[in-house]
Amino acid sequence: MRATSTPAGVPSPPRRWSLCSPKRLTEAAAGGVVGVGVDVAATDRFERLLRRNAPRLWAHWYTQAEVEECLRHPRPALAATARFAVKEATYKAVGARFVHAVRWCDIEVLGSGPGWQVSLKGEVAAQATVAGAQKLHVTTDETADRVIAVVIARGSQSKSERAPSPPTYASPQSMKGDRS
């Protein structure tokens, strides 16, 4: 397909191109992708929150193990921001909804990129099981003031192949031998 030119002489993209065509979405679903979650979090926000009321922030958003890891980090606010971004992206990837009060401690994020370890409990774990999520693939990247997290939830090829057991999760570092 030829690109057309705008009046200013700048080429416009082809008109029929779509990355989200129904056919491509069906192919992705058949390949076992249950959901994708993306989140961008601002480090300065967490720096402010930690200055204002650190005990409240830690208690509401993080497990004790997460708090300990963040406090050992040279930049605790950055570590907290990364975990928050992974939690949000995970929540989106497994299709969890704000049915009741969200318990952010039900999503525990330990380690660091590229070796994130994510474990789920409570309603988020139940929603992941209902959605058929058996693995979470997690990646993060950071700039001076932002952290982005991408989580891909994968299941089996069909609902009949999905195991009713709690899902297991992996980061890219722990998936090197996984070719499924």
From TrEMBL:
Keywords: Magnesium, Metal-binding, Transferase. One of its GO terms (biological process) is fatty acid biosynthetic process. InterPro entries: 4-PPantetheinyl_Trfase_dom, 4-PPantetheinyl_Trfase_dom_sf, Ppantetheine-prot_Trfase_dom. One of its GO terms (molecular function) is holo-[acyl-carrier-protein] synthase activity. The keyword Magnesium applies. The keyword Transferase applies. Residues 35-112 form the 4'-phosphopantetheinyl transferase domain. Residues 155-180 are annotated as: Disordered. This is 4'-phosphopantetheinyl transferase superfamily protein. It comes from Nocardioides seonyuensis. The lineage of its organism: Bacteria, Bacillati, Actinomycetota, Actinomycetes, Propionibacteriales.
